[in-house]
Structure formats: C-alpha cells, structure tokens
Amino acid sequence: MRLCCPCHFGLESVLNFEIKRIGGENLSTLDGRISFDGDENLLARANIRLATAERVMIELGSFEALTFDQLFEGVKALPLEDYISRSDAFPVKGHSLKSKLHSIPDCQSIIKKAAVERLKSVYNIRYFEETGPKHQLIFNILKDVCTVYIDASGEGLHKRGYRKTSNEAPIKETLAAGIVDLARIRRDSVMVDPMCGSGTLLIESAYKALNIAPGLKRSFTAESWAQIDPKIWKTERDAAIGDILETDFKAYGFDIDEYAADLSLRNAKSAGVGKYVKTEVRDIQKHLPIDGAITICNPPYGERLLEIRQAEDLYRKMGQVLKPSRSNPCYIICADEEFEKFFGRKADRKRKLYNGMIKCCLYMYFN
C-alpha cells in the first residue's frame, strides 16, 4: 500500500524522520508531501503517532491528464474497489495548479463519473446509495499530472482533541510539533513560552518529552471502514499508550492576559499533561530566565493582533529579557522579516515556515 502525508512547507525533513521511525519505507518527497510504503497497521500507526503530518492518505495512483478524457480514463483504471465497497460513500474534492485542467467543479464531476463507472463494472450495479462509511477521494493535479488519494484521517491531524477553545491567534498543532522537534525538546527538558496564548507549544512540548502519540484522544475516518480490521486500531493504540514515558519534563507558560494563562492550563489538563505545565500571568517585560530552559514562542505579528510599531516594540523587549545563549536557547516563529533587527541579534539559524497562509520564519538562537 502506498501512503502519503502532506505537511507544512519547511517541515518535510521532520516528518521524513517521523515516518521512518514508525516503519515507513521507500520514502519520496514532493511539494510538501511525503509518500511511503506500508500496510494497514502502518496506516493506523501513522494516524495515531505522526505529530507533524496534516493527514494520512492512501495513494491510488498518478497519470498524465491533459484532457478530460485522460482524466476519466486515468481514474477509471484505478483499483477503487480495493478500498470502496458497494454501499460506501465516495465524495470527490481536490485542486489543480499549473495545469490545463483548471476547473475544479469540472474535474470533480469527471472523477466522480469515472469512479462510478469503475465500481459499476466491479459490483454489477447501476446505482450507488452511498449510505456506508465515507471514503473521501482527493485529487491533486500539478503540472498536468493527476494523483488520486483516499483520505484515511477525516478531520486534519492538527485537531488533536485537546483544544476545545483557543485565543485569537493560535498556532496550528502540527506546526507547533515541528518547531518543538527542531528545538530538540527531550524527556528531561525545561521549556518556557513567555506568550503562551492557548498553550499549544506547551502541550506539544510535553507530548514530545513524554512520547505521547498526538492522535490518542481522537478517532479517524478509516476506523469505520470494513476493509480494516478494528483489532488493528486497538493494537496500535495499546502500543502507543505503552510507549508513554514518565519524565522530569517541566513547561512554564506566561502571558499578559489572565484568560490566556488560564486557557493554556485548562487545555494542558484536557491533553492529559496538566501536571507537567504551570502557567502564570506575567508581562514579557518582567520575564525572568529559567536556568537551562528552552524558550519557544509565537509572538503576535503586526498584521494580526498588534499594530506594526507595537509588534516591533515587543520584539525589542523580547531581545532585552530573553537573552538567548547555549544554555538557554530560543526558538521564535515570526512573520516580520525584520525581526532580527528589532530583537537585536542575528539568528544562529533560520528556517522558512508557514503558519496557516502566513509566511513566517523560525529564528533559532542556540549559541
């Protein structure tokens, strides 16, 4: 079985390592997606354990599609019956980029008709009620090459199940997990977020330190499929629970907003890591470094929550109080291209990332 996981641009190397660690083979990376070989156990394991993947999909096949006829015939040749039963629902969605077939509604219609024709010939029926479990078909047409997938996750994997509410500008859980990985959080780390918001960076740090699989608190659409034995999901969940560690990890979250500090702690408790997280109302100007701590934060961007000049002033204050060093490294994600100027120091390393649709940079200070 060929599987595929999309991820945030800039986190491909992190996800690549994650996939290898859970047993994925023959990995290939293209445009923010990593494809790999695996069986049904690996499909379940990937959904439960991968921290930086946006979703897990079954890759049915790729083919050139310069015309609607080629699109129809290409889809009709795919082994849809291996995953879609006669009563299953199989809606279609997708996108096209730099291709002759650019009308999404037309492509959806053609792919749906081709899928129906393929399944009609296999099951020898003329009408599909589609009352069974959902098998979402996803197409991606890039430079006139169409790839068709079946979504095995359902809701995006960033929806861990622990964040019931959030503040005004949350960071996506999958992106936070990637930053935590790059910050090298370990089981004995002390982590600090001086602007903790809804606590996502605190929680993802705790998950990393305790080796908690991020998908343990949620379900996945493939769990309802008749094609996968329910025992596989139980086996993989039990194994993930068995791998959770007891550690000396500690996380401290501070925020000028009392609601945010309280929300962070409530979300941490919901995530099952409340005993490892402490929060407090504190202005960044009164921040006191904790010896040996790793600071990770997502300060407000000028175009989102603050006026640009207010944001720049905030970055100056951060530079004055955080004082990154080898023993107190800092990892700061920010959309302001001039962040280093206001922070007062060049980053030791930078990595381009996207927070939603916002182009950002992870500024890494570790020397």
Give the oligomeric state of the chains in this entry, treating copies of one chain as homo and distinct chains as hetero: single chain
Write down how many β-strands occur, each being a DSSP E stretch of 2 or more residues. Answer: 14
N-C termini distance: 44 Å
Strand content: 15-25%
Q: How many helix segments?
A: 10
Kindly name the structural category. alpha/beta
Low-pLDDT residue intervals, each spanning 5 or more residues = none
Architecture per CATH nomenclature, i.e. the level-2 architecture of the largest domain: 3-Layer(aba) Sandwich
Query: Mind describing the biggest β-sheet?
Result: 7 strands, mixed
CATH superfamily of the largest domain: Vaccinia Virus protein VP39
* CATH topological fold name of the largest domain: Rossmann fold
Overall mean pLDDT: 95
Overall 3D geometry?
elongated
Which strands sit side by side, in order, in the main sheet? 2-3-1-4-7-6-5
CATH class category of the largest domain: Alpha Beta
**Residues in helix, %:** 25-40%
Order of helix and strand elements from N to C terminus: EHEEHEHEHEEHEHHEHEEHEHEE
Q: What is the alpha-carbon Rg in Å? A: 23 Å
Total separate domains:
2
